Amino acid sequence: MNDETELRTRTKMFARRIIRLYCALPKLNAAAQILGRQALRSGTSVGANYREAYRARSKAEFIAKIGDCLKEAEETYYWLELLLEEHFITARRLQPLMKENDELLAILTTISKRAKGLE
Description:
By secondary structure, the protein is mainly α. The protein has a single domain, classed as de novo design (two linked rop proteins), CATH 1.20.1440.60. Helix 3 packs antiparallel against helix 4. The longest helix has 27 residues. The chain is elongated, with a radius of gyration of 15 Å.
């Protein structure tokens, strides 16, 4: 499996985990649902933008789409932090997802830097 295929798979699995997290949030707590929807939107966008990046028609478009991936991953981390800090989800349940988010951020940052010729 090449790096592109592996990252496509990882970002899709990340999205699926975000979906399961959202489904596990308290249904009657408005704040949990709002934060969860935000995490759902940004967390599933990471993989969608990554796929778009590899269909880019130019290097500039590729760099822009990878930048979108980074933006969405960073935003997802923010919403996950709020869900944790407001005790809508336990640290034990959320920690592996936050770790994967960190790893995706690191990978996408490397891709972005290489594409820009910074590494």
